[in-house]
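Hi R.,

Here are the chain sequences for the assembly we discussed:
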Amino acid sequence: MPDEPAAPAKRKRTRIQREKEEIILEAALEVFALYGFRGSTIDQVAEQAGMSKPNLLYYFPNKEAIHRVLIDRLLDTWLDPLREMNPQGDPRSEIRSYIRRKLEMARDYPRESKLFANEILQGAPRIQEELQDLRMLVDEKVEVLRGWMREGKLARVDPYHLIFSIWAVTQHYADFDTQVRAVLGPRRDGPGRFEDAARYLDRLFTEGLKP
Amino acid sequence: MPDEPAAPAKRKRTRIQREKEEIILEAALEVFALYGFRGSTIDQVAEQAGMSKPNLLYYFPNKEAIHRVLIDRLLDTWLDPLREMNPQGDPRSEIRSYIRRKLEMARDYPRESKLFANEILQGAPRIQEELQDLRMLVDEKVEVLRGWMREGKLARVDPYHLIFSIWAVTQHYADFDTQVRAVLGPRRDGPGRFEDAARYLDRLFTEGLKP
DNA sequence: TGTAGTCTTTACCAATCGGTCAATTTTTTA
DNA sequence: TAAAAAATTGACCGATTGGTAAAGACTACA
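And here is the predicted structure of the full complex:
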């Protein structure tokens, strides 16, 4: 009796529902990435999605539910590059691949990166739980890094801060994109900046982490 | 005749004006850093400042004026560490000092860092002009770095991305503070994380930038 | 101490916010 | 094709937004 009329979440979804939900999520990603949760309005998302506000609220019960789905999807794929780091591989080559993958994500999914950045900047009020999963994954990979260091295959550095630095330098190109492009200027700016970044970071981490 | 009653900006400021303006700016920094410009409300700032909204608006004409002053002050001091990089000094030691100073700013002025991050994330709509100043300063320092590379005192890497990486790894500890602390966990977290970071980054950049 | 100028507050405004409702239109299905 | 279900809309709600008007309270100084 209670959950029949308003939100078509439990019932089997129709074609239109699937399509419109994707359109809404796509629009919401655009808006939330730019203004954060509090700074964004349902009206903005609705206009971006090309539909009326009540129509949008026919598919999602409220603003937070949209944000929730975006965050969940994001975290699902966001951590894949780290999960893929292979304990059996060559340490510095694994780290190099990790950096490359993270850089590709910054290039291909900048809005997802900004969405995450906005959430963390605001104290991560809606993803406390997910941060615990993240912590467990990092702890696991920190042990891998420590193993490599013990085997003498990697410089003995703080593994946590090693991971932080990789996150920082890669996500920077998505989150601070505006600044990067302003500094590079119209002459130097262009798609090639990601390749330049990859080349530089390769060198920095390969040389910087030699045992 | 026109600017007498509302905003006491042009006249010589009284003691109370100076004091209250500082209280307001301090409160606004707290709020804006957390929610960004659009996500923050005058009421929030007023409550944080311990005064009524109309009282706050007696000192500043509107929300944007407060933000403007904060941004101007911030940028003034934010770039000092880069300005201090001395062309006559030893390259890798100068870079090391630059990283240390930036890390100290992330530790001591995290709200300023977040305020800036919020502004850039949202496409820097209110600081286009200042980004041009930043660009000039970076261009100048890029020439210094290139000189060092030509002298064989520094690895030949892309100087722009070198600077980006330093910004990224240092500001990360202010902007993504929530994530850093969540990952480190209550056991490892503490004031010492900045020293650990400094040690790690020292090593990474010193070794990574050897000619 | 009086008063001019400064400061603060209450009450209020129009616009926008997140969200609901009822009625209508479109699509699916029997 | 007709009825049932799903989708869409305009009108609307109370709360909150940025900001104002005007009157009262406080301060500095003659």
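The two ends of chain A are 65 Å apart (CA to CA). Chain A touches chain B through 58 residues (CB under 8 Å).

Let me know if anything looks off.

Best,
T.
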